[in-house]
Amino acid sequence: MSAELIRCVNCDSRNRVPAVASGTPRCGNCREPLPWIVTAGDDTFAEVAERASIPVLVDLWAPWCGPCRKVSPALAQVARDMAGRVKLVKVNVDEAPGLARRFGVQAIPTLMVLRAGRVAARRTGAAPAAELRTWVERAITRASAPGAPADVRSRRRAS
Asked: Which residues are catalytic?
């Protein structure tokens, strides 16, 4: 797995961010949280996404898909806005057909929020950054709340 170069939104320093880490990435210069944006495929998804230490926003997309290209900047903005709280994992379904089958992807972009390796929320289609950020925040809050629906609580206990 390779590391991505991410520019710090606070001090503009370039930082090498690994796809997998035990904590969350921070700027080497100013120590502010960095957006964690990585790619994964069939062979790396478990390590990169399912075992992540923070909630994961998964983008199942394809390069030929217009709505996928449209939503990509909005997802990057959500990752920047929620730096240190969420990890964005991009999965090209053309290169990862096993994940597309596993998650029953019938339309792209398909977006999922994973908590402790389990799907906490799922949606299909593009949306503006503000709407996506609200959706991710609700999914994270709902999945961790004591009064969460039984299906969410049981998935959380199983992990």
From this structure: 65, 68
